[in-house]
Design brief:
seven-stranded mixed beta sheet, alpha/beta, eight-stranded mixed beta sheet
Length: 443
């Protein structure tokens, strides 16, 4: 069996003479009406692609169902798809008359390859995921499906799993005023389900799109809380010892080469990755207004660095009880950005993992708790020109998070979050300013 990553949720699965093309999105032309593009960018040479023998369509969301790509494929191909009359009619209306509708847990055989449709709890659109079995080799592409662990266990042992991970509706939640705290129970379900079949190899999947430059480009800041790196690290902590976790780029190939599975980077003859950047934009789900008033870097450094290194960090290191001691318990990597202007910021990170808070200058790849503050507000408060209310009452701070931890192979998350893990920098700074103001006012 050979699995070629074409990008996002598109794969070519080759086994026993069959070449099954999964959710083919083979170009960036008018994906979602021109809204989306591949991320990372890739080039697909259809003339060099081995001719598919079948198509597997999981559902009709625009990042999975791309009619322009289907126009390049033979209409004689059998199409495996959810057993929904209107979806079958739509595909047949495109000229693909050889449809094979599959209901939940129904299977079909193409040559020596058995394909099973696994179910999804999703309610917004009919969808399935696909399990491929060829002799002793097996691959489960979870696609966008919501499947509980108990259902995933019905598969038995699966060798390779593509694990869904991105909470794609978070941008809708933000845009409708419901905040930045996405449903972590979904991520817990998806990742634990992906590992339930105890695979030999698992990889983060189905998040290889970003918004095109233009009107909706700002949505890249809102839409993608988790990176493939984040999920790779979580899967490594969750997985049993025999499971290997990898991250794929377009053009990478997974192949059985007895006695095991190999991952060959950039080995495809027909897919070429044009960039190694798998992140559309850093997740920053907030409005910059109130943060970008001009502040001089030298003044920020002269006032804030001593405050951070001589006041805040020592108190964090001495905390043995109370909310700030919980940062280590929850594997927090805090990242704080001080905004100097709309285009300039200074960043520091504190890694609480391992028990002793460690300060770094610059962003941290494992950051999961984020604070953005106005440099102007920070300078005014620390210099005594303003009181302690500029952060939250004055709109000079934003905080958001994506904190998880793994214990005994299970994914956990704190809640209610800001009661369990209140933001420490603004809290300590405000306490200090209160004391300074009180001392100045004292007779």
């Amino acid at each position: 069996m050979r699995i070629t990553s074409i990008g996002h949720a598109s794969y070519l699965v080759e086994a026993e003479g069959q070449r099954i093309l999964c959710d083919p999105v083979l170009s960036d032309e008018r994906v979602a009406g021109g809204l989306l593009r591949s991320c990372p960018a890739r080039a697909v040479d259809l003339d060099a692609m081995p001719p598919p023998t079948a198509i597997a369509l999981s559902h009709v969301h625009a990042d999975h169902f791309h009619p322009l790509s289907w126009q390049r494929l033979s209409k004689d191909l059998p199409v495996l798809l959810p057993a929904v009359d209107r979806l079958v009619a739509r595909v047949q209306g495109m000229g693909y008359l050889n449809t094979i509708p599959l209901g939940n847990w129904q299977s079909t055989t193409l040559g020596e390859v058995r394909i099973t449709a696994t179910p999804s709890l999703a309610r917004d659109t009919p969808e399935v995921a696909f399990h491929f079995q060829a002799g002793e080799r097996s691959f489960w592409n979870t696609v966008d499906s919501d499947i509980p662990v108990e259902e995933a266990q019905r598969l038995g042992r699966v060798e390779v799993v593509a694990a869904k991970y991105q909470p794609v509706l978070v941008q809708t939640q933000i845009l409708t005023g419901r905040g930045t705290q996405f449903d972590k129970s979904e991520i817990k379900m998806w990742l634990e389900a992906a590992l339930a079949p105890r695979p030999d190899l698992v990889f983060p999947a189905a998040c290889g799109m970003s918004y095109q430059p233009g009107l909706s480009e700002f949505m890249n800041h809102l839409s993608f809380p988790l990176s493939a790196h984040n999920v790779h690290r979580l899967l490594e902590q969750m997985a049993p010892p025999h499971t290997r976790v990898v991250t794929l780029l377009p053009g990478d190939v997974i192949e059985w080469e007895g006695p095991g599975w190999s991952v060959r980077k950039a080995a495809s003859r027909f897919v070429r990755c044009l960039s190694s950047d798998t992140t559309a934009k850093a997740w920053e789900p907030f409005d910059l207004r109130g943060l970008d008033a001009p502040a001089a870097e030298a003044e920020v450094r002269s006032l804030f660095l001593p405050h951070l290194t001589e006041y805040v960090v020592p108190r964090l290191q001495q905390a043995t009880s109370g909310p700030f001691s919980r940062y280590a318990e929850w594997d927090v990597v805090w990242q704080g950005a001080v905004h100097l202007s709309p285009d300039q910021r200074l960043t520091w990170s504190i890694d609480f993992r391992g028990g002793t808070p460690t300060l770094y200058e610059g962003p941290h790849i494992d950051a999961n708790y984020f604070l953005h503050v106005s440099g102007r507000a920070l300078v005014d408060m620390l210099s005594g020109r303003a009181g302690p209310n500029l952060f939250w009452q004055g709109g000079g701070a934003r905080a958001y998070e994506k904190v998880f931890r793994v214990r005994d192979g299970r994914l956990e998350y704190p809640g209610p979050f800001f009661e369990v893990l209140p933001e420490f920098l603004t809290s300590m700074t405000m306490q200090r300013i209160f004391k300074i103001v009180a001392a100045v006012a004292a007779p």
